[in-house]
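Fill-in record for AI-2E family transporter.
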Amino acid sequence: MSIPTSPVPPDDAPPPADTPVAPRPRASTALIILTTLAVLSILWAAQTVILPVLLAMFFALVGNPVLRALRRLWVPRFVSALLVLCLGLAGAGMLGLQLYGPASEWVQQAPKQLRALAPRLKAMTQPVHQASQAAESFARATEDRPQRRVQLVQIQDNSSWRTIVATPKMLASVLAVVLLTFFFMVYGENLQKNAIAMLPDRQRRKLTFDIMQSIEREISRYVLTISIINTLLGAVFAGVLVWMGLTLQDALLWGTVVALLNFAPYVGPLIGLLLMLLMGFVSFEGTWPNATWAPVIPAAIYLLLHTIEGQFVTPIVLGRRMAISPLVLILALMLFGWLWGIIGLLLAVPLIVCVKLVLARVEGLEGWARLLA
């Protein structure tokens, strides 16, 4: 019995065609949109949990360069983390005590000062008000419908009760941020190593470890550098206010406001400019020989300092690697501000920088990093 054999192709026969590879399945557009909406909903709904974690990671990144410096001096990580955290809390507490009095005074006197400024502002906006009244009168004259009686409803203010209810929640959030910051500084490195150890082969573990170490160093450097620049900006502005005749406590208050607002590009300086203009009208009106321009001087100095910082100091210190497209920054500020309010505005830039650094280090995603620049 003969066994059938497959025919042997001749030597000059063409090579067999490669087997076509099945295309990689891609998610549909509807699925991507639904996933994005689900993620945004989770970020908004779980902000009570997410925000303390992000703030703790932010503060831990600020303290990591100090921890590395103390490690070179053979200081244990637990002790160095405790020392950095205690120094940070002590500095924040002392600054808060210094600013509590001026802030309370400004909050109490703001309505009175605004009422005093009302006649001047009314005189400045008188043409606009007259035009609005004329348009309203014309609209009423052209209406055929009878005017309806407007019923006034008095709403009781329960702000005191809301404050009492919100205070324990705020204290719990602050305590959570402090504890998470300490644990991130102490155990964050071990958690990172344990996560890398789960990778299958040694080469991939080494590559991932090098990438994460590089990203962590660059992000820590960025966060610490931006914090120092903003602090110096606030200190310089406070010094200028003291030179102009403002008290030291009031100057520290406005310097702190300037430093915090500078963490939110574009939006923060715009709010700061309006606040400095209002502060100038309240504090410096009639104090200088040229009383007409005296209220505008703090806002002008603030704008000058911010321009120098934004156009020269920060680009020189950080370089092009940390640069983010202004359009991307605006979109990020809108998104995170909508999700998390003021804290979202402060965290938007560090989060976008983190995303850019990660994309630049991961193979195949460098194009997305260039898109953000």
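KEY FINDING: The chain has eleven helices and no strands.
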